[in-house]
Batch of 2 targets.
Target 1
Amino acid sequence: MANWVRKQKLLHEVPEFMIPKLQKGMRGRPITLEQFERIHDKAVDVMGSEAADSWRFYLMGLWTSGLSLEESLTLRWDPAPD
């Protein structure tokens, strides 16, 4: 797409894109609701009381979005360039 934009003379040069490499195919399987609830409930024991709420929030985001841990770590929210 970026090369097409350059050929249309809308860009002078194509910027370099950093595309993270994801492993091919799904490793393992999605966890069950029971497993999620057990992980969610153990957040205080594993992460401590100060960090538990933020980890529970993160876990809930993974659960509701269906993203894997690896996929969630490659997400970026950068403002559009001016």
Note: The chain has five helices and no strands.
Target 2
Amino acid sequence: QRAGTAVLRLANAEVVPFHFPGLTETLARYRDEVKSLLNQRRDAALERNRQLDEGVFTALSDPREPTRPPARADIAPALNFAPLDNALTEWRRSAERYETAFARLDRTPAGAELNRLLRRVERALGDSAGLPRRPWYQHLLYAPGFYTGYGVKTLPGIREAIEQGYWAEAEREAARVATSLGKAARLVDSAAALLEGAPGQ
């Protein structure tokens, strides 16, 4: 029912009813989650290595059935999330500009060019190269998890690289998301410019 209502709303609207500030807050939360995940991985690795250095695993091993201690953990380095942070700031400005311009209109404009720009925003959040090891999934914000079946992963390229300890890949994926988000922001700016020049402003 929810999907059907959304399709009808999109099909019948004079202007595609996207609410960009809502996506801004969602993206900020996803960004904070992957940063937190990186810190959690680093803290867990440091704790394992501390326990190895202090002989905790050896002390807990049953002498009748001895077990080998785990390998030392790879410590997560500091990753460069600056491009993603900057792209999110750009997106926030563009989203606010569009919402302000739309709110100032006396009447809803009807324009094929405006809708064409708005429809391209979602497409800009994908990449034809697809996700690592899954080129058929091209959206960079959402995808089924590689190990979770249909369970969704947000910022999947970044998140799954961190989970697997592929640090260089995580940084590359963050830059890819930033590039796509910048493209989407420029489309929203173009849509805002159309509204700012529309009658009734």
Note: The radius of gyration is 23 Å.
